[in-house]
Amino acid sequence: LPNRQEAYAVEHMLDDISCVADACDVEHFLLWGHSFGGSQALQLTVRSQRITRAVVAGSFFGQVYREERVQKIIGGLEEVNSALKKGQFEYLELTPEELAWFEQRNIPAMIACWQALISWPIVEPREVQCSLFLYTGSADERVTTPLLERQKEIEAAGIVLHTFDHLDHEQEISEIEIVFPTVLGFLQGTSLSE
Q: What's the whole-model pTM score?
């Protein structure tokens, strides 16, 4: 992964998705994104005529990547990166699983990506150009709160907004038996009002 911030500009990230569709010789396609992938999907829904239906989970409209939040995340990543380079990871108070996760990552690339996200354009509901099913879990408050605050505006734009009870951010994608039937109905155009 590149360690340069400009490599994670929104245009580059979205071009990657379009290149995959081109390589598969697909003119129009369905799109499903979660969390960061959900933010990418929202960006693509306002820039591409190729998407027929999109599903976004764990993201929201407006300023998703606020500078103060991103700077805090970057600071934590820089601390982890420094400790790993010096072999002083015991000071990080990480579980063995967390440590293994960080050791398998390119932390400078992660930092560059987070830095780029601050300048990603804000996406508004009225800009979406395809059928969109936007969902969250009620336990994912960082995402659910801004979505519910704008529920009327979202629904007025023709976007289906759904909250799954008791799901947190990770469960929005991992609880397949709860999420998949509803999402599949939307993707097939067989259920949910649009």
A: 0.88
